[in-house]
Write a structure and sequence with these properties.
The protein has ten helices and ten strands. It has helices spanning 9-27, 43-57, 85-92, 114-127, 164-170, 190-194, 209-216, 249-256, 259-263, 272-276; strands spanning 2-6, 35-39, 66-70, 72-74, 104-105, 133-137, 158-161, 184-187, 198-203, 235-240.
Length: 279
């Protein structure tokens, strides 16, 4: 596992976007070989999407041969609702790039059979050849996607009832009225994300500091589902300085000492496979 500590949330956004761009370009996707990308929603990855749009407009990356699978979606929220994840992804990212709409997959929270929708989603990921890079954010309680505290660490895509903490955290998106927040969501499982060849988790802000501490300095714990990624062979955790406030000084110093190595991960002339053998 790598922890990459950057100065600010904007630095996290830019580093993450450069890494995604490099992974796609190094993969050299084509009509018979798509790059498969797992994507999150929320405030943390928003800056990354803005940077990726900027890189696309500059001709530095194309999404023509990219397939995406989003992490989650609310249940019974209209697709065109401003807080649906369909709305978020199309308005903040997909409509600004050259991705084929049929290659952008998002769970349907209005499906007539939600269990069948989840099972088919897993099947689609498998048929696409699995996810090359799954990007995620975390909640203050350490959940990834909607895998709330107590979720199985081998869970698959499923219907999930949301925890009270999540409802309260998301109320700000629904006029601060918790009664308007959907009580259920469809979400990929921890096991679904663990199957990806590489996982990149974005953590910014002091309110995520304790979750980051639980994620990397304590053991694997299903009450902090992000901690499962300690056991993934290729995990990148990208954080800002604010998110490190609960970490031990020696932990911060250790990972900062590797900053030169980490910077080479987004440089254009270094093989990522070679970099993975260094650390």
């Amino acid at each position: 596992m790598r922890l990459i500590i950057l100065e600010s949330s904007s630095s996290v956004a830019e580093w993450a976007a450069k890494y995604v761009m490099k992974r796609i370009n190094d993969f050299n996707p084509g009509p018979d070989r798509y790059f498969v990308l797992g994507l999150p929603t929320g405030s943390t990855p928003y800056g990354m999407y803005q940077k990726l749009i900027e890189f696309y407009n500059a001709g530095k990356v194309s999404f023509k041969y990219v397939k995406t699978f989003n992490m989650d979606e609310y249940v019974n929220l209209p697709r065109d609702h401003p807080e649906s994840y369909h709305y978020y992804m199309w308005n903040n990212f997909f409509k600004h790039i050259d991705i084929d709409p049929q290659n952008a997959h998002i769970l349907d929270g209005n499906a007539s059979d939600l269990v069948d929708e989840c099972n088919n989603y897993e099947k689609k990921i498998s048929e696409a050849g699995g996810v090359e890079l799954f990007i995620g954010g975390i909640g203050p309680d350490g959940h990834i996607a909607f895998n709330e505290p107590g979720s199985s660490l081998v869970s698959r895509t499923r219907v999930k009832t949301l925890a009270q903490d999540t409802l309260e955290a998301n109320a700000r998106f629904f006029d601060n009225d918790i009664s308007k927040v959907p009580k259920q969501a469809l979400t990929v499982g921890v096991g679904t994300v663990m199957d990806a060849k590489e996982v990149m988790i974005l953590i910014t802000g002091t309110h995520k500091a304790f979750a980051l501490y639980k994620a990397i300095e304590e053991g694997v714990n299903h009450m902090w589902t992000v901690s499962a990624f300690q056991q993934h062979p290729h995990t990148l955790m990208i954080c800002d300085e604010d998110a490190t406030l609960e970490l031990r000084v020696k932990t911060v110093k250790y990972f900062k000492a590797l900053s030169n190595v980490h910077h080479k991960l987004i440089e254009g002339d270094v093989s990522l496979d070679k970099m993975r053998t260094i650390h």
